[in-house]
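Input.
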Amino acid sequence: MLPHVWELIKPRRWVLAGGFALMLVNRVSGLVAPYTLRALFDRVIGKHQANLLPRIVLAVVGATILQGITSYLLTQLLSKSSQRMITELRISVQAHIGRLPVSFYDANKTGVLVSRIMNDVEGIRNLIGTGLVDFAGGIVTATLALGYLLSVSVSMTAAAFVAVVIFGLGLSKAFKTIRPMYRARPKLNAEVTGRLTESLGGVRVVKGYHAEEREEKVFQGGVQKLLDNVLQTLTATSLMSFSATALMGIVTASMMFLGARNILAGTMSVGTLISFMGFLAFLIAPVAQIASVGPQMTEALAGLERTREVLSEKLEDQDPQRTERLDRVQGRVDFENVDFAYDPGKPVLRDVSFESAPGTSTALVGPSGAGKSTIIGLIAAFYVPTGGRVLVDGVDLAHVRLDSYRTQLGVVLQETFLFDGSIRENVAFARPDASDEEILAACRIARVDEFAEGFEKKYETVVGERGVKLSGGQKQRVSIARAILADPRILILDEATSSLDSESEALIQEGLRFLMHGRTTFVIAHRLSTIRRADQILVVEAGKIIERGTHASLYSDKGRYYDLYTRQHGIETNLFLAPGEGDTPMEVPQGTNGEADASGGALPDAIRLIRERRT
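Output.
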């Protein structure tokens, strides 16, 4: 742990060194007042040497002012530096977590990650803040005080020192007991925060099933565990504080008894005893300070340990095998005998192989849990195969630098996610440098303009958390516009129109057809009528591809695809298309520049604008 502490402190070592220098001045200044008590009582009062009084008073006033100035400078220097360190560490942890693979997010709740970013680093301020310096200052003054006390009375100092050592050993054992409690607290806090985040995010589900009381009980159970932990640590620290107070009382009383006897015996003056008692407080104070600062340092180290756990997670692009760059993707995707398992021993995909030529569309169909989304996840490089290879333009994705690949990838997922910003900001998320003209063009293609223009603030309308102020269909249109603006070479559509009514779907399908033209597209669709024109359809079941072909060929084979299709549409209603009608790959009419045209020319002009600006 100490190397990690030094790694954290090293960039601020000169700030810390300056803090220690100020601390030395501060602590030495604090010793002036008890040191002058001996002269005040023995010489000024005892021997009536009034000429010394102004000098003593000036020394005490000067030392007090100096102590106040250094205390102020310490707070300004170290407290502000520690807050900057916390901010920098939060930024570092967030940036690191943001670059971790999707599998890390699969294994950790969002609320837990938020707690690690925001809460775990909070206590670390004591590693560079006034807590550490105050503790070190206590050690310095205790050492100076011990030297003075020994010069006054070895026997009295030895008696006090033995009591302090015994108490220190007791504190050491106490910290071994409370350290696990402090280590457990961030974990408990993260669990409670995680569950609360889920509950608030799913408030409609909770209310829809009248589960408010159940969620209350779950939350109560979590905060009760957290309370039990806090109460245990408070009990332990209270006992330590009580012991420290008792120690000071016992040692002070003992020194008063021994000092009084020495005065009566004529071996010690009154001023010497008063000065001795003043310095004795500086010897005992650091031990008492351990009782208050110690738990803070323990909490800081526990937070640092959890932070280090996150920062030690391997980044996606840290794999030394990822050396290839894909500067311009053509769009050929090949699966070669791909196996995949989220958990060892539980395969999700088995020996999956297929080819997708550049500019073609591939549809994945099959029952839920068959492995379709996993195939999409592998194409998006969210996961790495446990066996076999996924190739893009002949290059193994496991060897590709992801920043060079994903900038050429467009994704419209089944679970639409929008940020709590405006419609414009959510569309521009794909390309923050896009012009307003390009953003509006993408919105026209995805038919976002049909509802956005009706809002008072139009495209500046704030959609709310996760787009809560928009309907499911409206959210999906914004998501599609985002993918259109990205102008990707490889496009993934995971149930891209599942939340749309038939009329809206027909409108967006028109825009999607132009978007898909010239791009390698992968489509997951449970409504099989939407993928009849795909260049190839892969039927996935139990992690394997059991059928492949066009709609016409698969339908005529009357296999698994035929069963799925007729189950959705019925044999009679399915015959609204004559055999072979609409079953060939979509023919896109060409304009003068080779771009897709349609009646009115609005959509191809918009797409041409985005492509030209993109290139």
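Residues 88-313 form a domain with the ABC transporter transmembrane region fold fold (CATH 1.20.1560.10).
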